[in-house]
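Hi F.,

I've been meaning to write this up properly since the lab meeting, where we talked about keeping a consistent format for the predictions we share between groups. The idea is simple: the sequence comes first, exactly as it goes in, then the structure tokens exactly as they come out, then a line or two of notes. No screenshots and no reformatting. I'm using this chain as the first example so we have something concrete to point to.
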Amino acid sequence: MRKIAILGAGESGTGAALLAHAQGYQVFVSDKNSIPPSYQQQLLENGISFEEGGHSWDKIKEADEIIKSPGVPNEVPIIQAIKAASIPIIDEIEFASRYTNAFLIGITGSNGKSTTTQLTYHLLKSAGLDVGLAGNIGQSFAKKVWLENHTYYVLELSSFQLEYVHKFKLNIGCILNITPDHLDRYHQQMESYIAAKCRIIQNMDMHDHFIYNQDDPRLTQYLNKHPTHTMLHPISLIQPTRQGAFLNQNKLCFVDEHYNFQIPIQELPLLGKHNWYNSMAAISIASLVGISPTSILAGLKSFKGLAHRMEWVAKINEVDFYNDSKATNVESAAVALESFTQPIIWIAGGYDKGNDYELLKPIVKEHVKALICLGKDNRPIRQAFQVLDIPIYETQVIQEAVELAITLAKPQEIVLLSPACASFDLFKNFEDRGKQFKEAVLQLSRKLQTT
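Output, unedited:
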């Protein structure tokens, strides 16, 4: 019986363990931290051996192959020991792909991949296709393959999930954009981060389709140096493309040898220019798998969007509140701020990952009426924008931020939570931050209605 060891017992590691056990492997799961009770229960119910609070090298070294969860850093001693012992390391995505013959669609990018993945899945599902959603969203790919079989899978893929793919091959791959993110993982080397993202296409061939953002200079420069042999479908808001998607007179145009149609911008369910790119990618994928423009339009009309991504929360005193807590970097906050023409009360800040705010300064100057800094250490963001001569306030309490925002905003203006920073200084994660923001807004709404 072949032995497999799995490092990390989160969603990815547990999913891989369940699939490996079902395929007849002798499985051992090792996590240096505590394993959440829900995942422990799944392992116990299936008779899978595991440990927590450390790694037992004597057991791990017996494995024929190692599955590394994406959250496990590459520099930790256990990974170095495995490499020194020449034991093959793969990602959970690679392992899961061995046990399905489905048509695989993979989407990555620094920003927008969750929205694009969800929209793509929705367009395929609403058109009646047998499709599963997995990867960096919802259930892991391995768990999805273990649970059920689908004709299509739409996968959200992070750079972390692609580092140890070797034979993993997509039928349609998509890279939305490349902006500086997670550079601590890649020794501050942007080229290494881009290379990890582009592993999504490394095994694709002339029969496969590659959708990419032609307006992204980092991505196009990398692709020029490392050409792909796939069928190319560039997307652009700047210039027409012979094959792909582009913007022309407030319409998104989709061109291929098998289709040629347009969709007016006002038909899109998502706010902001960044979502025009996301929509072009998702609609292109839907078209490539044979979904008609009529069905695509119907799917767009029924799509609700994702929480914490330019999510409208409430209107209070004719002021609209938006939750964009997922905007954990400067580029995401920039596209959010540029999505509105009305003056904005901007709630931003958190754990600063060494942000360079220069990109934001002209945008803030044009769009922002006041800045409310929400974080334990607001010095970096405050110092960055104090030169703009806009009112700047500070708090560590999200309820205070919301209550201050309504006093600063006039009717028809916008209150936007788009932090440009990570969340874990004051919150569990960006979801927790967004949830608390929404709760504070709705609590304020109820309070004002009773007075």
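Notes:
The two ends are 70 Å apart (CA to CA).
The chain has a mean pLDDT of 94.

If this format works for you, I'll send the rest the same way.

G.
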